[in-house]
Amino acid sequence: MDTKKRIDQLSTELLRHQYLYNVKNEPEISDLEYDRLFDELLNLEEQNPQYASENSPTKRVGSDLDNTFPEKEHTIPVLSLDKEYTGEGLEKWVAKTMGKAGKNIGFVVEEKIDGASIVLYYKMGRLDNALTRGNGLVGNDVTENIRTIKQIPLITGETSDFAVRGEIFISKSDFENYNRKFENRYSNPRNLAAGSLRNIKSSVVAQIPMNILVYEGYFRENTANDHISILRRLKDLNFKINPNTAFFCADSESVSLTKNKFPEIATGSIDELSAYVKERMKTRETLDYDIDGLVIKINEIDVRENLGYTSHHPRWATAFKFDAPTAQTIVENIRIQVGRNGRVTPVATLKPVRIAGSTVSRATLHNQEYIEILELGTGDRVDISKRGDIIPAVDKVIDKNSENPSVFKFPGTCPFCLSVLIKDGAHHFCKNRECPERIKRSIIYFVAKDQMDIDTIGKKTIDFLFSKGFIKNIPDIYKFNYDRLLQEEGYKEKKVENIKKSIEKSKTQPFSRVLAALGFDGLGKAAVSDLIKNGFDSIDKIISAAAKRDIEIFSDIEGFGETTARLLIDHFNDRENLEKIEELKKIGLNFKEEARVETGIPAVFAGQLWVITGSFENFNPRSKAAKEIEKRGGRVSTSVSSKTTHLLSGSSPGSKLEKARKQKSAIINEAQFSDMLK
């Protein structure tokens, strides 16, 4: 494979994994696997800068942005961390960093909690905004949900503005108690915490036992010279600081002063740092919350400022990542699953084994090539790990099955419809669109919480309805007479009424949810949001554009590219898809995004698509201008395209101004914009 093709492939794969981890909370690979891919791309780009894209995953923080909540700009740096995986690597980083500092420095060691990152912004000591990490530049405003977390002070003793970074998490014991009430609906504490921050009902969030530990403070009036003093100040303001924090320094006087300043934390000489890290690796399982590593950072603020940042991470801190928890067990069976889009995934059924506090009985095997690399067959004794501490996976074969030392081979046909399986790249696919398993999976996806949120018909109910022939496709969800279920065991009148109510309620879901729920390849929530922001705010507009079969109509949208554009054209020229959409239209689902206009404000920007670029005197951050546009019925996009009607241009506008001129978009300056708002 040539270098450019590999760079493009890695970029696409990493962006997909960023979305799965940060937004969907459904990671498919471990942190270690992700980091290996990331490092490979970084090395290739450094050696071949002519092939590096300005939108490369190496040039940004993995984004957790969600169009359900408004976006706001961060006013502090919100970056990722560089990583080390071995004790030797960490010791080299410490030595190298001490050399760059040019003077005696201390290091603070903190737990890297596996939760959801949050930034709290305070004005005059009162909580003003709470933003998710987002893409490092902007985050989602989840303030109302954050206000429900009792451990977060809403009013402090400060009289100035400041910001705090922390991690929202749910303890293991609280998670078990909460999850038990919902029949173990949630897979792990991290996913529940991250998903809860984006729940549209703060009254629901208030019932979820979320907690917080903070680890950075940014004060406008900062007199602190070191990180320990900042932590002390935060603690005095009633923020929760992790007591499992340590300080190491070669200067015994600094160690003594730090112990006096913050007696709760552990202290030691710089020579003891490595031993401390090794000990913490052993004791992680005793904690009542999940951590996936430790963060080591320079204590002195002036040294941090001198070392500065890369585009991806600060040079004054690194994360020491723990290995995934492992165990040994027997593979009792291997079967294949077929997804809604036909992708075939092998899954190992395991002899149940305890690992990282839970019982594991299944593990992913990815594809046939992965199985062949492992030389894995039924009955083999294997090493398994919880990748990312979440997804169980088979890592290697310890002992082959002596009675039948074979290697599992994919069947030639789909076990659900007997169609011939087609190999495409590393994966096999069932191409039969009438495959009952593919259809059932598409229905399960459609009703899921993150899609149409029909919570009264989960997977078990769909399995039952589908096996009985009551539901054969997505439109049948709305056409079936659910009163017939009163004749079936386990379906009482109240349960049936609840099903009917939730199905009727789902008809009010916005167009963005409906389109994403259809499950077309390449059209997840983020892509749907980008489509709508770029003027494709109704299914009719999308179908009309796709009918022209002009790839550039869609590939011009930032983040799409030719592959996604071709998928869109194929999806919306497909007869079966169009018939399904037409049927759902008649049922009453929303296939047009309604402009959200505040009562009493004329929709003077309705039908307009704006792009904002440059710096402004009265609209800083730029999200203030975006909010004013949206109040008046307009939409805002991050990139100029053929659909852009207006460009709001401030000082230093960059290349977007020239592109807007070529597109003949209206160019509006700040003074003109202010007049338009009046």
| Assigned CATH architecture of the largest domain | 2-Layer Sandwich
Low-confidence stretches: none
Strand content: 15-25%
The CATH superfamily label of the largest domain reads DNA ligase/mRNA capping enzyme
Number of separate structural domains:
6
CATH class of the largest domain: Alpha Beta
Helix tally equals 25
Report the mean per-residue pLDDT as an integer: 86
Task: Tell me, briefly, the overall form.
Answer: globular
According to DSSP, the number of beta strands is: 23
Q: The CATH topology of the largest domain, please?
A: D-amino Acid Aminotransferase, Chain A, domain 1
Evaluate the radius of gyration. 27 Å
Estimated structural class:
alpha+beta
Q: Termini separation (Å)?
A: 58 Å
Residue share in helix: 25-40%
The largest sheet, given as strand count, sense and whether it forms a barrel, is: 7 strands, antiparallel
Structure characterization notes:
The protein is globular and about 75 Å long. Strand 20, helix 23 (623-631) and strand 21 form a beta-alpha-beta unit. The mean pLDDT is 86. Helix content is 36%, strand content 21%. 35% of the residues are buried. Strands 13, 14, 15, 16, 17, 18 and 19 form a seven-stranded antiparallel β-sheet that branches. The protein has 678 residues and is of the alpha+beta class. The longest helix has 20 residues, at 3-22.
Write the layout of secondary structure elements.
Layout: H1 3-22, H2 31-47, E1 71-73, E2 82-84, H3 87-101, E3 106-113, E4 116-123, E5 126-132, E6 138-140, H4 143-146, E7 162-169, H5 172-181, H6 189-196, H7 202-205, E8 211-219, H8 227-236, E9 246-249, H9 252-261, E10 266-268, H10 273-283, E11 291-298, H11 301-307, E12 317-321, E13 326-338, E14 343-355, E15 358-364, H12 368-374, E16 381-387, E17 391-399, E18 421-424, E19 427-430, H13 436-447, H14 459-467, H15 476-479, H16 493-506, H17 511-517, H18 525-533, H19 539-547, H20 551-555, H21 561-571, H22 575-587, E20 609-613, H23 623-631, E21 635-637, E22 646-649, H24 655-662, E23 666-668, H25 670-677
Parallel strand pairs: 2-12, 9-10, 20-21, 20-22, 22-23
Antiparallel strand pairs: 1-6, 3-9, 3-11, 4-5, 4-7, 7-8, 11-12, 13-14, 13-16, 14-15, 14-19, 16-17, 18-19
Helix pairs in contact: 1-2, 17-18
